[in-house]
Amino acid sequence: MEKESLRAEKLALPQKVILGIQHMFAMFGATVLVPKLTGLNPSVALFTSAVGTIIFHFITKGKVPAYLGSSFAFIAPIIAAKESFGIPGAMLGCLTAGLIYIIMSAVIKAVGSDFLEKFLPPVVVGPVIMTIGLGLAPTAKDMATAHLPTAIFTLAVAIVISIFGKGLIKVIPILIGVVSGYIFAYLAGIVDLAPVQEAAWLALPNFSLPSISEFSASLPAVLIIAPIAVVTMVEHLGDVLALSKTVDREFIEEPGLHRTLLGDGIATAFAALLGGPPNTTYGENIGVLAITKVHNPVVIEIAAVFVFGMSFVQKLGALIRTIPAAVMGGIVILLFGMIASIGLRTLIENEVDLSNNRNLVIVSTVLVIGISNLAFTIPGLGTDLKGMGLAAIVGIGLNILLPESAEAESDTEANEVQAEEAVQKA
Known about the structure:
Strand content: under 5%
Distance between the termini: 65 Å
GO molecular function, one term: xanthine transmembrane transporter activity
Number of strands: 4
Number of domains: 1
Organism: Acetohalobium arabaticum (strain ATCC 49924 / DSM 5501 / Z-7288)
Strand order of the largest sheet: 1-2
Protein name: Uracil-xanthine permease
Subcellular location: Membrane
Helix content: over 70%
Membrane topology: Multi-pass membrane protein
């Protein structure tokens, strides 16, 4: 029954295709931004993102509607490793990070994921999910302020379609918003079509293999990049929890956290073998799921097929890359806000009592650490643990260290003191 509700939604193929294109637009900007910042090839990133998503869906038995795009967490270490050891050395580090995911997947499969219920109750999960969206708010601001009128127009169109649209129109507000925003931006004179004219029609992505034959020389690159896997595994867990709340399915239990980690790990290792950045489940696409209420994984798979083709069709890829940052800025304001709202819903639906000081301390601390992007440098590695990763670890630690009975004991003591005072006065 669960499988039917996820996969057999009553959508005709043309509708699924349109929804898939919408997901493609949602992931595109961030996926090509990572290779631009790290000096990797954008076409390779698109190729490995698409294939990685298909790998993830195969391993998770087609039950998790997640799209895997380029991970931002690896940007700084990839740049550092590439400067000293070149792209092959950096890719060896990324390959090792993927292998760490695979090993952790085997461990979780062996010991189970029941321990997560103790470490990750709603009082921790809710604010962690909120930091996914709110932590990305500065990114949305930077994109939107590139040309604020375009961003505002794009956001307004997406909101109007989402609220007042009917039928198929109602479930593609992102796609309509992007197209409308692009037209607005073109009329405003901020679209440069020169890259489309210069691009070839068809071309193979410029793949780059990691330097496995020179492992000893590239070992320091592994030490720079691989430890980030510890952080991104926490982020992976947060994204899976956000997906679970969005779709109202317990993906930690079925298909299981071990499968989602394995899918993410193999996708990342595959990307590294071809010179692409590590993959991660994308918050942008979680936002699309929250808005459209269409959770069919096939739609995500269709998006992956389009992205796969785009990695070879250079003109089409170049056309998508001409979408101004302000257009996507208007869209992600809505998408990132939706993710934060899912975290808030988690707290409300689980009736987390914020009049309880223990709960209030955990939620407050997680939110501020996650949103402020406070960083902690891991001794000996020079790697920063920050954002949602650090917030999740702090939240888990506080949940373990702060006794649940502390607030009740405090209230009891206060009541006893008040009773004694009343007796003395009497």
